Amino acid sequence: MTTLSTTLAKRLEDPRLFRQYAYVNGKWTHGESGREEAVTDPATGEALGHIPLLEAEQITAAVDAAEAAFVHWRALRADERCERLLAWYDLIQANREDLATLMTLEQGKPLPDSRGEVQYGASFVRWFAEEGKRTYGETIPSPIPNASLGTIKEPVGIAALITPWNFPLAMITRKAAAALAAGCPVIVKPANETPFSALALAELAERAGIPEGIFNVVLGDPPEVSKILCAEPRIRALSFTGSTRVGRILMEQSAPTVKRLALELGGDAPFIVGPDMDPKEAALAAVAAKFQTAGQDCLAADRILVHESLHDEFVEHFAERMAALTVGNGLESEIDLGPLIHGQAVEKAAGIVDDAISKGATLVAGDQSQAPGANYFMPVLLTGITRDMRLWQEESFAPIAGITPYADDDEVIDLANDTEYGLAAYIYTHDIRRIWKLLRALEFGMVSVNSVKMTGPPVPFGGVKQSGLGREGGTCGIDEYLETKYYCLGAL
Ligand code: NAD
């Protein structure tokens, strides 16, 4: 058994929230072959602990456990499931500080952002606890003589949830709370970079009285585990948040068992600044929309499109605000940007900046010699971004801002839609006719006007095009885990 790292031991009020095992059928489980993987703090490179890599039979055992537990969980009344979920919500809130500390240690984001994510993640548990009581069916006027027609909603079955490292807690609760409220057991496969948030959630689920086999966390080699989960016919739904690249693989692997799929994939959000805007107000908003989670955010403002009449002033204000951002270890106070998740992310970011400069972009600000450590990337501002550059075409997932001028509404619509992604878009303008025209023309699942914040439990989160399928949150988020059964009662 590996020992609790000294950093974690010193920092957690409740060290039992730090688990280095998988969680299957209500039991903390080590790998059968002894294979392990280290989990490191991206800020320091220090090993925080280890996770076991489970064998194929152990993943199948999690499915067996979920199958057995499903019978009882689906038979509970919705208000009984609601009580368990509310107990889980209370425990997440009560342990917010420890959960935030674990998250900052494994993910790197500043502690206030981690606290915000715990709060955000918990809010989905409360929302879906209540939504589970409103999974209404319908009564259908009958065209068949003497018959009564209608629908009832039933849980789809076991759900596999595969989640990313950038939001290690909220991406789990946004899925799991909906599934559990609908009556489905879940098998969570978190990112190997950030497993400890998932395991702490499992510990709290157990304390909340969520029965064994209902909330499982499996760990292992990601392609190996995902292949087993996708091929498993007893798993009826797969909900994935991550890159479009991996989303495509999982979609293909799920085809033979025809699973219900929810895919929350990449984004490459345009941030449109209209000619009527105050350039300073718009620049401050754009900085906030770009640098959250050090740019490792599917909602990050990746393509900043500024009307040519205010381009230069906007760039000045953006650069001034960006210069005030602090970069450092997320455990320290007054930090705006933590490290990137690992060295490959830093290499990728540097490659994207070099590519843009080699194709004619201007480097306005961003000096990597100031980076406080190996996994850090200082914020970069580039102007003159064109469609042939990687920064335009790819999701950088790094603190690199690129600005492109445009002449009129038609041009900006064409620029904004020039992407395989369609997750979120931002519009900054007070011109109501322009707002409506852009809102209708933008090919994105979510459009936010004059607001950086756009998400929360009551809203449908999701994208179009290659940003994915399905919606999480809102009144429709639970539908991903429900089947509609139609009935026809003939003359009785
Ligand atoms: P990723 O696709 O590399 O990994 C996501 C999950 O898939 C992880 O659990 C990982 O272990 C697993 N995985 C990785 N390679 C795999 C493979 N070959 N086969 C099967 N599983 C595999 O994504 P990431 O780097 O963890 O996260 C960043 C991506 O997630 C970005 O593209 C971002 O836009 C996206 N994201 C989307 C949303 C959304 O709601 N749309 C939210 C957050 C992040």
UniProtKB/TrEMBL annotation:
Residues 28-486 form the Aldehyde dehydrogenase domain. PROSITE patterns: ALDEHYDE_DEHYDR_CYS (PS00070). It comes from Vreelandella salicampi. It comes from the Bacteria. InterPro entries: Ald_DH/histidinol_DH, Ald_DH_C, Ald_DH_CS_CYS, Ald_DH_N, Aldehyde_DH_dom, Aldehyde_DH_Superfamily. One of its GO terms (biological process) is gamma-aminobutyric acid catabolic process. Keywords: Oxidoreductase. Belongs to the aldehyde dehydrogenase family. This is NAD-dependent succinate-semialdehyde dehydrogenase. GO terms for molecular function: succinate-semialdehyde dehydrogenase (NAD+) activity. Gene3D superfamilies: Aldehyde Dehydrogenase, Chain A, domain 1, Aldehyde Dehydrogenase, Chain A, domain 2.
